[in-house]
């Protein structure tokens, strides 16, 4: 047997010729996943598209059976009535003032409480934080009557203070900020203390600049809840000049004989716009805040 014969390979290479690097075994896109996600997206967007198209329909077309998807007689009368018949500027100002004040209060006070629970060691800190978490499990309807009695005794019924003060700090905001601040290294705070900085200066100049994602998340959630709040303004506001947008739309679009669905949908479109603007401005920090805020203990 010659040397040439001995040097020949006795087995063919695995995989066969031409299959090396052919991509076999690589993960393929899951078409069914895109189908499910697309279906879910359609389900989420359909009510908003219906609301937008319905806002330019007449009441007769909105009550038609079977309903029409695309408006056959597009009209802006619903928006004209919204801005002319209703005191829209006053209602919008009330909603904006209350929502901004409540959001700002939560950003300040919830951040302070979260910093205290996360970075300051004091007696009873753990049990006090557990009490804060326990309040998350109490339904809002349970505290509605006692809260109204308290506001009434303080003489704040039908005032901006009555609409704002009960919601300046919420347990969820405290929990969110505390969880985020647990991830801030203690070495930064200790270094600031060594340099002679007080707790208030550490909070504003060291901790708060690092909490932008959590602050954006809290701002969006708080603004959304306050802007859409209906029950509390309905109970506290007793005159038209203190009504917020959700209350005004509910009271003026529902008549004695029938509901004006066109006016209601037009108002819903206007109510939705500030929420979209706030989310678009803070969406980058919002997504980052949700991704980085873990359940630390």
Features:
2 domains; MetI-like fold; mainly alpha; 15 helices; disordered N terminus; 297 residues; single chain
Would you list the SSEs in sequence order as H and E? HHHHHHHHHHHHHHH
Query: What is the CATH T-level topology of the largest domain?
Result: MetI-like fold
The tally of domains stands at 2
Low-confidence stretches: 1-8, 12-23
CATH class designation of the largest domain: Mainly Alpha
Mean pLDDT: 82
**Mind telling me the C-alpha Rg?**
29 Å
Strand content: under 5%
> Cα distance, first to last residue?
75 Å
Helix percent band: 55-70%
In the CATH hierarchy, what is the superfamily of the largest domain? MetI-like
What is the tally of helical segments? 15
The biggest sheet amounts to: none
Broad structural category: mainly alpha
CATH architecture of the largest domain: Orthogonal Bundle
Total count of strands = 0
Which word captures the global form?
globular
Structure description:
With 297 residues, this protein is mainly α. The chain has 2 domains: 30-75, no CATH class; 88-292, MetI-like (MetI-like fold, Orthogonal Bundle). Helices cover 66% and strands 0% of the residues. It contains 15 helices and no strands. It has helices at 3-7, 31-54, 59-62, 77-84, 88-119, 125-135, 140-153, 160-164, 171-181, 186-194, 199-207, 212-227, 231-236, 245-253, 261-292. 26% of the residues are buried. Residues 1-8 and 12-23 have low confidence and may be disordered.
């Amino acid at each position: 047997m010659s040397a040439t014969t001995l040097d020949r390979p006795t087995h063919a290479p695995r995989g066969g010729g031409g299959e090396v690097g052919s991509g076999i075994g690589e993960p393929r896109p899951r078409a069914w996943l895109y189908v499910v996600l697309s279906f879910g997206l359609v389900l989420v967007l359909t009510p908003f598209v219906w609301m937008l198209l319905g806002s330019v329909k007449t009441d007769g077309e909105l009550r038609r059976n079977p309903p029409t998807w695309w408006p056959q007689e597009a009209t802006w009368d619903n928006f004209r009535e919204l801005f002319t018949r209703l005191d829209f500027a006053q209602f919008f100002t009330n909603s904006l003032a209350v929502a901004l004040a409540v959001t700002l209060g939560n950003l300040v006070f919830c951040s302070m409480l979260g910093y205290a629970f996360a970075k300051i060691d004091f007696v009873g800190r753990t049990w006090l934080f557990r009490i804060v978490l326990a309040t998350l499990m109490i339904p809002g309807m349970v505290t509605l009557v006692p809260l109204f009695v308290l506001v009434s005794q303080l003489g704040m019924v039908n005032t901006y203070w009555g609409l704002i003060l009960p919601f300046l700090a919420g347990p969820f905001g405290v929990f969110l900020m505390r969880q985020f601040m647990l991830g801030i290294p203690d070495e930064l705070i200790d270094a600031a203390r060594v340099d002679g900085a007080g707790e208030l200066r550490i909070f504003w100049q060291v901790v708060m600049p690092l909490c932008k994602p959590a602050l954006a998340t809290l701002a969006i959630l708080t603004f959304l809840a306050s802007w859409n709040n209906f029950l509390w303004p309905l109970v506290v506001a007793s005159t038209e000049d203190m009504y917020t947008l959700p209350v005004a739309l509910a009271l003026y679009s529902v008549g004695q004989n029938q509901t004006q669905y066109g006016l209601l949908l037009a108002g819903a479109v206007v109510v939705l716009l500030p929420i979209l603007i706030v989310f678009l401005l803070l969406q980058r920090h919002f997504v980052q805040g949700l991704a980085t805020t873990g359940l630390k203990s």
